[in-house]
Amino acid sequence: DGGITQSPKYLFRKEGQNVTLSCEQNLNHDAMYWYRQDPGQGLRLIYYSQIVNDFQKGDIAEGYSVSREKKESFPLTVTSAQKNPTAFYLCASSIQGWSGELFFGEGSRLTVL
Amino acid sequence: DAKTTQPNSMESNEEEPVHLPCNHSTISGTDYIHWYRQLPSQGPEYVIHGLTSNVNNRMASLAIAEDRKSSTLILHRATLRDAAVYYCIRSGGSNYKLTFGKGTLLTVNP
User: How many other β-carbons are positioned within 10 Å of the β-carbon of residue A70?
Assistant: First the structure.
């Protein structure tokens, strides 16, 4: 089945550690996105990528890094520089970024102890 | 800056129609209007999108004002499974960027 897969679903880390969240899609989509959601809040865009080997900062990129070496994959690293990393992280993809439909993964919940 | 304005919450009764409003007064001519909904602890789900004309699909209808400064998502018969946060988003340009606001929390009463 085609879809977008995020892993892990739950992740606990100690403060000061980097952590990488995986996002893989087999929909042959060009664009991929990372969003962050805090309790009771909307989604805020961290990074997005329109094509392989290219990505742009979203609204809250500080403390995060990404790579887009393959069309199918868009991993997000939460670095120790991110001051408040505990959140729900959502990955999405789309075939036509600005007019088409976004497909979301099930999310990864990161808790920093 | 999501550039859309929605009520924080709305309430409806089961099997009644629901009209969820969205204001996007600064929308440009090439911006699309998208609606998504999100259940707790899940990723958002696409509902519908449109540009100028009203749109219908199996989930909902989208009514777009003639001046495109506002739109309304219509759920024709609300069910308990429609209880969710509904996001109205505008998108356009070439940067592929979609920005979500806080959305409207829809409560459906049995």
Answer: 11
The verdict on B93 touching A (C-beta cutoff 8 Å) is yes
B42-75: pLDDT as tens digits: 999 999 999 998 999 999 999 999 999 999 999 9
The closest of B73, B85, B9 to A42, measured between CA atoms, is B85
Here the tokens at position B38 are: 């999100």
pLDDT tens profile A44-102: 999 999 899 999 999 899 999 999 999 999 999 999 888 899 999 999 998 865 566 88
From chain A, the residues in CB contact with B98 under 8 A are 33, 45, 97-98, 102
Determine whether the interchain pair B45/A33 forms a contact, defined as Cβ–Cβ distance below 8 Å: no
Q: How many CB pairs under 8 A join A and B?
A: 67
